[in-house]
Amino acid sequence: MPLHLPSLKEDCSRCAALCCLAYPFEAEEVFAILKRADSPCPNLDQGFRCTIHADLASKGFGGCKAYSCAGAGQRVTQILFEGETWQEDPDLLYHMTYALRVVQPIHEALLILQEIRALDLPPDLHQHCVALIRSLCPDNPRSVRDFEEEQVQDALAELPDFVETIAPFAMNLA
After folding, report:
1. What is the pLDDT, as a whole number, of residue 91?
2. Checking phi first, is residue 55 left (phi over 0); if not, alpha (psi -120 to 50) or beta?
3. What pLDDT band is residue 173 in, cutting at 50, 70 and 90?
4. Which of 62, 76, 140, 158 could potentially form a cystine with 30 if both were Cys, beta carbons 3.0 to 4.6 Å apart?
5. Which of 72, 63, 62 is nearest to 15 (CA)?
6. Backbone phi and psi for residue 59, each to the nearest 5 degrees, phi listed first
7. Phi, psi for 33 (deg, rounded to 5)
8. Ramachandran area for residue 73 (φ above 0: left; ψ -120 to 50: alpha; else beta)
9. Taking a C-beta distance cutoff of 8 angstroms, is the pair 30, 112 a contact?
10. 35: which strand partners?
């Protein structure tokens, strides 16, 4: 049975700038300002675009430049919220940012598992990798609750141990 992975590449044009809201900034080397979680970055315009995107690093926002949601932002916006946005309905803000914080680690885990799947692994480890991928991809998710299901969260929690198990195979590439 083929694997049906979501897009794991960010597409900001299909998102509602969720990363510019969901995460806090600490005023330090990679963020020029202090920003609370679930509050819009002051550099965000009404069209969900960063007003300083071309100059992020020089303006003190290297953390933004290095960030990738791994496709979670557009999945939350387009799939879980069917294209609705927090700007059109401010009551959605906390629900959308919460969903991003749930879905993004799953997408990051899927990226890691894709890399692992490409390794020359013994069949049992390869099968285990595929099983983890399948567990992290709920069938036809329509709510953040689908990503909070025990099967998904257990697979996410298992990833660090699995990575440790396959580490010798990855080290042979170096």
Report:
1. 96
2. alpha
3. low
4. 62
5. 72
6. -90, 5
7. -135, 165
8. alpha
9. no
10. 25
